[in-house]
Amino acid sequence: MPAPAPASLYAVLLIAAGAVLVAAPRVIGLSADLGLVIGVTAVAGGVGVLLSRMRERTTDDGDDGAVV
């Protein structure tokens, strides 16, 4: 199994930090409302990065079936 790319690791870290901010914003001294906004934004950003990095796998082998 290949090692994950650094951007993928940062995205997972962003999701984890967002989850902590949503669950317990007082850990870093934020109000509940601000922690919720920043946490949801962090989770959405991390998911967005992971989705944008997905590879598109095509089954097209470049052959159109024509016989010459």
Write the layout of secondary structure elements.
Layout: H1 6-23, H2 32-52
Helix pairs in contact: 1-2
Description of the structure:
The structure is a single chain. The chain is mainly alpha-helical. It has a domain at 6-52. Helices cover 57% and strands 0% of the residues. The protein contains two helices and no strands. It has helices at 6-23, 32-52. Helix 1 (6-23) packs antiparallel against helix 2 (32-52). The chain is elongated and about 70 Å long. The N and C termini lie far apart (42 Å). The relative contact order is 0.18. The model has no long low-confidence stretch (mean pLDDT 89).
Strand segment count: 0
Number of helical segments with 4 or more residues: 2
* Helical residues, percent: 55-70%
Instruction: Report the sheet-strand fraction.
Output: under 5%
- What is the molecular shape? elongated
Structural class: mainly alpha
Q: Low-confidence runs (pLDDT<50, min 5 residues)?
A: none
Query: Mean pLDDT, nearest integer?
Result: 89
SSE order: HH
Query: How big is the Rg?
Result: 20 Å
- What kind of sheet is the major sheet? none
Q: Compute the separation of the termini in Å.
A: 42 Å
